[in-house]
Write a structure and sequence with these properties.
Length: 220
């Protein structure tokens, strides 16, 4: 993540979360990027400009990779009797952070019964697909998450633009968000989107870093 402390602390009009796009280096990276772009088509078609509801469904998906990766890294470290180099803690914390994004947007968007059903089906499918992807190709799995998080930064930037344009009401921030991110009592939706976007930028950078370490052999 670039300049995260400044982003979290500063709620000025021009506060932005900056994430560096990872240019694909080989066919594995290109596969990961194309898969994410393909997945985005469905999100754009179904949710259009309803960014709050998009966030509710997509954050349930975003919370899966960290937990799967943490579990498989834990088992791998035990199996090979070696240190995990801090990956397990990092991945589990990522999953919990994404869960807090979900808990926040549930308070804001109030998902419908159909969206709750969609969440259950999406999670069931994605968990199994991602589990086997990580088991067989962890580098690709981390690259997929890196590109997913890049797309999340784009989506939250568009969400922020809608708030600033008055197309989405800048409602008060839920108490759960104020407690988790230490936001001021008068914080509103705009501040919530900024800190969540900063989180997503950090996850993108970290997962691309993990993929690079696997590719270089730093993390067998």
């Amino acid at each position: 993540m670039k300049n995260e402390p400044d982003i979290v602390a500063d709620y000025a009009v021009n506060s932005v979360a900056i994430v560096e796009h990872h240019a694909p280096q080989d066919f594995r990276d290109r596969f990961a990027l194309r898969l994410v772009k393909f997945m985005r088509i469905f999100a754009d078609k179904f949710f259009a400009g309803r960014y709050g509801h998009r966030a509710v469904v997509l954050e349930t998906v975003a919370a899966v990779p960290g937990m799967v990766g943490g579990l498989l890294q834990h088992l791998k470290a035990l199996r090979h009797i070696r240190d995990d180099q801090g990956w397990i803690k990092e991945l589990i914390e990522e999953a919990d952070n994404e869960r807090m994004h979900l808990m926040t947007f549930i308070k804001i968007a109030q998902p419908s019964g159909f969206e709750r059903f969609l969440i259950a089906v999406t999670q069931m499918i994605f968990y199994n697909l991602y589990f086997f992807l990580y088991l067989l190709a962890p580098r690709v799995a981390h690259r997929v998450v890196g590109y997913l998080e890049e797309e999340a930064v784009i989506s939250y930037t568009q969400y922020l633009e809608q708030i600033d344009a008055g197309l989405v009401e800048n409602v008060p921030a839920p108490q759960i968000a104020k407690d988790y991110w230490n936001l001021p009592e008068d914080a509103r939706l705009r501040e919530v989107v900024i800190v969540i976007r900063a989180d997503e930028a950090g996850h993108a950078d970290k997962n691309h870093e993990f993929a690079n370490k696997i590719a270089s052999g730093e993390h067998p």
